[in-house]
């Protein structure tokens, strides 16, 4: 993958594995040549990235307890809760899904495919890489795309006259094909969104950005205070304000300013905010 590929990619899985699989050789004085990962992304950032993917499907996740696990996974990534608290939240989430399954069986209701994918996503969002965290990307994308396609399809059929019985088989087939076409288009859009989220969290791995202490110290730490407020309040609409403050502080780093003034999306783990706040 080249730098241009990274900046324009709409395939988050390719970007994900590029960061994981790219290695470089380094010569040790005592052990000779060693292979090491070329691009380091912290465990915190990986967790925040998959949480951001799941925040996009909160409306699809069927129980409040399962929606809460996304919040708890993010808090765990930030060191705000420990493993015991995370495990307790996982247990509550699983129990709520089992309870909802029993309720639906009793009522003769079935799960929508996108709901199943949403549950699959939140069942992985808290995991390590070795335990299958990567599956969150695919499941979250399928859940959001499926839900969006279904909603659009239902809206498009509202008010339609009942078909003649003889026409029903052909209409059913046409409806299935239209729904699948809509799902695939929504999936394309969601994968592009996930790719943008990963760029927001990781930045451009092909370039290193140096932060000057004078920018942070300017005007009694004004830049850092703005960054902290954006982070704490998720007020990412204030990113252009941060760019103005950085510029006033003497920042001439084009990558930083362009990212702050760009279209986003921005989430917890945003590389510019993390850089200013000293987070890894």
Strand order of the largest sheet: 1-2
The helix content, as a percent range, equals 55-70%
Q: How does the helix and strand content classify structurally? A: mainly alpha
How many helices? The count is: 12
Rg is: 22 Å
Largest sheet: 2 strands, antiparallel
Tally of individual domains: 2
- Number of beta-strand segments: 2
Mean pLDDT: 90
Low-confidence stretches: none
Shape: globular
What portion of residues belong to β-strands? under 5%
Distance between the termini: 24 Å
Order of helices and strands: HHEEHHHHHHHHHH
Notable characteristics:
single chain, mainly alpha, two-stranded antiparallel ribbon, 12 helices, 2 strands
Describe this structure in words.
The longest helix has 35 residues, at 168-202. The mean pLDDT is 90. The protein folds into 2 domains: 43-202, no CATH class; 213-277, no CATH class. It has a two-stranded antiparallel ribbon. The chain has helices spanning 3-8, 12-21, 43-55, 64-77, 83-107, 113-122, 135-157, 168-202, 213-233, 239-248, 254-261, 271-277, and strands at residues 23-28, 32-37. The protein is built from 12 helices and 2 strands. It starts with a helix and ends with a helix. α3 packs antiparallel against α8 and α7 packs across α8 (168-202). By secondary structure, it is mainly α.
